[in-house]
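Late entry, written up from scratch paper. The run itself happened at the end of the previous shift, but nothing got recorded in the book at the time, so transcribing now.
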Amino acid sequence: MPQRLPVAKELAYRQLPLTAADVLRDTIQTAYLLAQQRLLNPAKVPDLAAAGELSAGISSFANYLIGERFNLDKAVVAGAKAAYLAARLLVQEYAALPRYAAQPVSDLRLTDPRFNFLNKLRSTPEALFFWQQTVKLLTQHGQEASLLEP
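Output as recorded:
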């Protein structure tokens, strides 16, 4: 009997008609929403209710950490990393992962106008680095819609 992935088991248990790829896309979109929430005027955030839930979750999570402050900025960095890993799995790219090596901010730039607002992450260069990698990877594989479609 073939072994099922844990995500497939969980989806079956919850009786959800989704695939592992759907879960990866949701991870990417949630991280993207975090970045939008951090960078955009609230009127331009596409799903304010979901953004509010994310904010509440970040605040609640912060209460469980000792000696560490977890806030929206740290969540945006963590989300960018999660989005990049999910994108790599989605396009089945298993080569060595690039490392963020404190590149100069001037080297980090998204040129696609649809994702221009992410360049505002210059104050959080690690997040900008991983979003640059994510957008580049998804675009190379024709999967950039994973960011744009809810």
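The mean pLDDT is 87.
(Scratch paper discarded after transcription.)
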